[in-house]
Design brief:
The chain is an all-alpha fold. The protein has 2 domains: 156 residues, Four Helix Bundle (Hemerythrin (Met), subunit A) (Up-down Bundle); 76 residues, Orthogonal Bundle (Arc Repressor Mutant, subunit A), CATH 1.10.10. 74% of the residues lie in helices and 0% in strands. Helix 4 runs antiparallel to helix 5 and helix 8 crosses helix 10.
Length: 255
Amino acid sequence: MTITKTGNAEIDQQHEILDTMVAELESLCLDAGQSPDTLCHECCQQKLCQTRLSAMVDRLGAFLAGHATYEERMMELLPDTPTCQSHVKAHKAAHQGLAKQLRKLGVQVSSDTPRAASTEVWRILGDWLGDHSSLFDNRLVRMTKSASPEIDFDSELVIMLDRHVFPNRPTAPKASKEGGSARQKAKVEIRGRIESLSPTQKNVFWLVVGGKKNREIAEELGITVNTVKTHRAAIFSKMDVSSVVELVKKTDVLR
């Protein structure tokens, strides 16, 4: 999948991150590439694939929140002309369409075979990096360059980008060496805590961080709600947190 550069550092880096998800999707099932006729229900890894796909869809939903926030902030710079406002209306509708597809996909991942679900993820990523980018993102960059070359980043937008899109944004201020060192130590500590989790606990961990409820996690992993609660308690203990909010904040350091 070839990515055309828009010339906007933020948007281009966002597209590159989407491209890494494409690569991740390509490696989801190596057997499928070697044996195209193999059916998912014959594979013992089906649950694992579903879990990985579900986590990817959750990440795409969060990513879209940051991507749309950034671009819609750019749209505020456009002049109030029929051409510009027509683009704004269509572009926002396209973001809403992507969000709707991802919500639908979240349900499909748990009900369809991993192969069918991964095909749909692939289609959405392809459309996002293809038609959506050429019809909307590239055009938005061209329009804002003629209207205003700079975006006035407010704190809410910066937080949204850092949390949902990517760390080390091209326009982000450089952290001090002392601050960077402290952050790196925090990352090492949190990775160590995550590595201390059992394989099942890790699956539950990422689903909890992704906003899944106990019953949803139980259905997705094929275990009981009480078992999920037991795993959550162990995860909270190993991660040294007392709530989901604390868990998410701690995990955000890794982004």
